[in-house]
Predict the structure.
Amino acid sequence: MIIVADSGSTKTDWMLIHADGALMVSTMGFNPLYHSEDLIYEESKKELDKHQVEYGDVTAMYYYGTAVWDHEKADKIHRAMARLFPNAEIEVEHDLLGAARATCGHDAGIACIIGTGSNTCLFDGVDVTDNVVNLGFFVGDEGSGAHLGKELVRSYFYRELPSDLLEAFEKYVPGGQAEILENVYSKPSPNVYLASFTRFLGEFQSHFFIQKLIYKSFAEFIDRNVRKYPGHLEMPVHFIGSVAYYFQDILKVILEERGMKPGVFILKPIDSLVQFHKDSH
């Protein structure tokens, strides 16, 4: 059996590939910045046990995850996966390489992730060759669900929401300012909480105020990240992630205004990654 896993901050998609077919399983998202080896192992096993996975039968495991940007973070994930799959060859990679393999395949291009968080890379068809530094939730993550949620919440607190949106928002957050402040400052994973407001943005995305908010955040993402890569006017710019997928019309406008080429938009990269590794075996 071969397993491919794609993990963001919110959710991890697992594809279990065996002789009779494939099975998709979802667990919580893992971030080695915040989660311990034990938690990653225990939460993964808890869900996989429900599907009666024969752990010893797994011969290869490919894991792509957020924040896996150095050996320390990768080793934490690797140790947890090795406990789960004792007989498997395990490869742990940054989700950027996963994004590049899923969108570019074996061709050169620019791969972007816009989900709960955001990131970009330049891909030469084999390796990631450049990455504009991602400063994470607190300082960067422009265009991401967390960044969009932060901008919406700021507009609410600063009394900038039009009256019709304000009425709808107050129904969406019945606890008002106190509820928001508690979730942002007193509970874990404030980035995931803020990204949850993309559902509200999606519901009202035809509203001019919301369109302007999303446009500004996405434009900042493109200008600060993607336009820094050499060849960005010649190469296709690809995207994965729920935020990019559901608001792709706005992203396409921004790219075309700058003379750039929109590439593919993929909601979940897991199917493309599975095909990539099937072709490699």
